[in-house]
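Dear all,

This email documents one entry for the complex benchmark we are building for the journal club exercise. For each entry we list the sequence lines for every component of the assembly. Then comes the predicted three-dimensional structure of the complex as a token string, followed by one or two observations. Please use this as the template for your own entries, and keep the labels exactly as they appear.
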Amino acid sequence: MNKAIGCAACASLLAGFSTFVMGADFPNPLPPEAIPRVETLPAKYPTGWAFLNYAGDRIELRNVGSDSREVKGQLQAHDSATILISDQRPELYVADTVWSRGTRGTRTDFITIYDKQTFNVVDEIVLPGTKRALITAMEGLTTFTDEQRMELVFNFTPASSVTVVDLVNRKVLGDVEIPGCSLVYPSGKRGFSTLCQSGTLLSIRLDEKGAVAGRSESKAFNPLDTDPLFTASALIGGIRYFPSLHGRIQPIDMRTEDVKVLPDWPLVSAADASGNWRPSGWQILASDEQKLLYVLMQADAHEGTHKDPANEVWVYNVASKARLKRLRLVRPGSSISLTHTADPLLLVQAGERLDVYQASDGSLVRSLDLPGFHTRMQIDPAR
Amino acid sequence: MNKAIGCAACASLLAGFSTFVMGADFPNPLPPEAIPRVETLPAKYPTGWAFLNYAGDRIELRNVGSDSREVKGQLQAHDSATILISDQRPELYVADTVWSRGTRGTRTDFITIYDKQTFNVVDEIVLPGTKRALITAMEGLTTFTDEQRMELVFNFTPASSVTVVDLVNRKVLGDVEIPGCSLVYPSGKRGFSTLCQSGTLLSIRLDEKGAVAGRSESKAFNPLDTDPLFTASALIGGIRYFPSLHGRIQPIDMRTEDVKVLPDWPLVSAADASGNWRPSGWQILASDEQKLLYVLMQADAHEGTHKDPANEVWVYNVASKARLKRLRLVRPGSSISLTHTADPLLLVQAGERLDVYQASDGSLVRSLDLPGFHTRMQIDPAR
Amino acid sequence: MAQFDLITEKMLRSMAGRTSRRSIIGMLGSMLAGASSLPLLPVGHANAAEAKSTDGPPDPNSGETAPQSTGNPQDPGDPTKCDYWRYCAIDGSLCACYGGTKTSCPPGTEMSPITWIGTCRNPADSRNYIVSYNDCCGGLPWGRCACQNNQGDRPVVRPQNNNEVTWCFGVQSQSYTCTVSIILGVAIDQK
Amino acid sequence: MAQFDLITEKMLRSMAGRTSRRSIIGMLGSMLAGASSLPLLPVGHANAAEAKSTDGPPDPNSGETAPQSTGNPQDPGDPTKCDYWRYCAIDGSLCACYGGTKTSCPPGTEMSPITWIGTCRNPADSRNYIVSYNDCCGGLPWGRCACQNNQGDRPVVRPQNNNEVTWCFGVQSQSYTCTVSIILGVAIDQK
């Protein structure tokens, strides 16, 4: 009580003093502010923006191309959620799974369709059978095909199948069984290829109704026992490049239905063999508009280190199969990507940091915080 | 490939060597282990266990009474969830709110009934009207009454009401409107009292069907403009003690329907007035079996510090209204509680730590980590 | 409470309806007159001066979000920091860290028209401003830029002055995302 | 894969059914024979020796969970630490930190009967053990004791050797909580 009176006293003193100050510096008070407003985003995102998928738990749109380093927006995600970004329609597609009581109750698998500018929910497509693969968010769980008219969702129960979704009419078209095979990569005009446990690649052609129109299987080329391919890949001129655990690179031409497995070649030259360099990390490689291939490489690699953060990024010309550059990272990185520009930025998730380098010379431009991040990241720069 | 062969080689070498070692130290390998098992808990929890409610986002049962410092189990929580622990039935009651799509979609308010030993969901009571108060988990949002046969849930929309739930027959009995009043404290045999904006206390008596059987309102005693009561309280011999922002303690006798507001008294003596000591924190006070009152106290308090962590715990004999002890904390604490034993432990949430003191002499016994904790905690020691 | 809520609600509804701000401040004034819970003391921890400058590029390896500024010397401080003066009573996350601004919600969320009120002292012009703390709802909360300032906060018995309540009413989802701070006017007794 | 899953599933179902372990190990042996993806090298980072002792009371102010022990010298290490030898291929959270143990699920969760398999070297007896990593499902995950060990992990093209898959099948909720490690036997080529 006494205290309250004391305050009133000093308050009036202050009031007297502050009246003088006000008069001097700012004769008018700040005006009342605008009515409630919600931010919106540009129809075409700047190339310096990127979606960061926090292991399927959370998706963040972040300005990595400016020192403002702003968060532009966020999309909720719950379990192994993956995002597809359309450049045909002003939409985003997040495949996700929830339960009616948090981590228990009725399970629902669904694709949320977001408006790219407002992040409002435009629509939702429920996926039947509660069979969507719950695997740490990564490449191959979902993909576009048929020029983004269709989304393909990989299912694992542990039986394997693929759900075909019509994104234009927003409905599920059907399922394709792919026993013994995993993940989906777009191939041909309308279809996909999948990596099989027999070491082969199975390619499925779809008709406009999403039904199987053709099916072809490659010879075995993926030595799962000795040197399996990672499931991460980079696309250069329609050719998809998969690194192997021990350091081969395996090109596969997926431009037409007639998918061709091309000759593999080594990432590590005989000269470097002694360093035991191998690809390692999560989103392990990337490509740019100059058709260069960037691969996270780890020295002194051995059994069990294939998902560890890597110290360097090696840059290749896939035409000449020559390594052009070695970029040393300021801190070991697990996931990399490149912005879609002539002079791209190299984005490297390194622990609780997203380090941004100039891809041309490997200089660190800036480093963003990833508070509370302790799992795996999938990076999707804006197109 | 070469590497692989190399490995095979050293492997066989090792095999030869290790056979010898095995023979020497451990002639027999470890046996195959038990079939899948899920832990269960004792029917009566040790007094050294406590439920930690992480602001209604997560509830953890933790062994704070032993240096093993183990997590015993966890209950999921989503939004402002509160827990009631029955000692009449082997059940726990968590009032919570979820949405059908994470943070959007259809809202459901519900009480989950858990088995105390298995943590399995026994049943669920859905609360109608999606009106449960979404306020940082704290005392007064839910309470037992009628010897734990009923749970009362405070609703805020922002109109105030209380939902009466029959926990024995697991059904909602009805609502009681309490316009202008907030929170629920059990009073009488079957009923509750609530703090009103007019500065009064409204007390409601319920019949066995949960309908209003009587209603009485106190004179105004809670000076909201000058020195309002905190909403946290401690119960000693049926009398509930509420501290005020400026340091009064207000006892209220809630043992019978005839609720009595008793004379208040100061926590801070004239001698200490210069220190500007005030109660501050979140779960700001506690009581023990010896009928002692423990209050978090903060020096140099002023407007806006009433929820800051406090440096000391002051201990009072409420009969003599005398301060018996000042306990200095190793780090400022926000929430306190006491284990229910003759020689109780004082539990103090201090940032990302739960510090455990001997209440008798204020010595630090142990300090537990609260990883990722950055909000407010409600502590419920086992009974 | 019913009465206070009516005022608060009506006020903000009418504000959303672009009616005269004067009348709103007037209403508030009378409301505030009755509620001396509004501090007239300077906000000690809201010393926004240091947190201001954006001169020079930040350390490329800092990992920090670059300092932001309002660009208005009469509104000093960094809207992404807890010590920005008008956040003197925010207990929650700052929308400016989630894709919103000091006064606007992040994309994909909805701003609640019903809210609670605080008073903060602007260190630049030494005026006390009435600030409306509006919650943005239905988005993704996860503790970035979490602030616990309690200037003028009061126990929930007076909910319109309490910052623990999720102020997501009259919106599709009542799930809390973050909080903005909107200047409604100058505290009446300072005009 | 279909074939492998059949074996894995049948094996663990039958294990759950208390049938002869021998037959299980036998089955595994033949399965493992075909899968040389199982490393026979010592697990470098699973040097559990240091992490062992529980002698003396921990620092009262440490904030650490006190070191735990299996109590068996032939099974050295702390089941609440990532470097416990039998966790050599765990990518996930340790159930021993959530109210479970190295081999049991926390209260209120359900153990998936379908799982994936790794091989870890026990530094005490220098044997390679076949370990079944079973996920506990339907509880509350939040990153306590998160480990990323990948000894013997292989790309998801061979799912039964992949630790990124949520192995919550044949249970009520497929939501991941944590992982336990159950010894099935000694790698066949070491008997």
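Observations: Chains C and D do not touch (no CB pair under 8 Å). The CA atoms of residues 22 and 185 of chain C lie 9 Å apart.
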